[in-house]
């Protein structure tokens, strides 16, 4: 299982001072690259006179980026991205704002400072379990709906429901359980099928073993 910053609870800021340079770090759940652009605009508005706005993100495994924002190459964004990989975080980003204090830290000092700031932000951030998932789509006759609704509720699953001539469902389930749930739904709708694949958060996520709550 992978992990993500809790979508409902953005992490608080973490602050670090090294040789008079101030580092302000934060972690957030992201669903697309466009989310990062909006978040960066917020950070720039909150901290308008900073020298550097360094960031890294991971969405699906393999879809990841980082920037040093004019720090020496490999000393700022790369340590943040490595943190996200080490903690198996997906759909998550880190932004670290730096106010230059007039003393150069050197390549090693910069990398350590950015990593320490990122670690502090992730330790403060609430994290949730994030699992590969499948979305099942089906149309259930009304007589079959009450029993199916109770069964889904007992499993902690919340489908998207539209009521029309019948009950149309979109249900995200853990990938490893998709076959079993498809069999359950097929009993009510032989046309039940997988309509999408991706990552999804489920009820009562497990605590992350490396930080957060």
Automatic annotation (TrEMBL):
Similarity field: Belongs to the IMPACT family.
Entries under Pfam families matching the protein: Impact_N (PF01205)
Protein name listed in UniProt: Impact N-terminal domain-containing protein
An individual GO BP term: regulation of translational initiation
UniProt cross-references to PROSITE patterns, sorted A to Z: UPF0029
Domain Impact N-terminal residues, every copy: 20-122
Alphabetical list of InterPro entries matching this protein: Impact (IPR023582), Impact_N (IPR001498), Impact_N_sf (IPR036956), Ribosomal_Su5_D2-typ_SF (IPR020568), UPF0029_Impact_CS (IPR020569)
Cellular component GO terms held in the UniProt record: cytoplasm
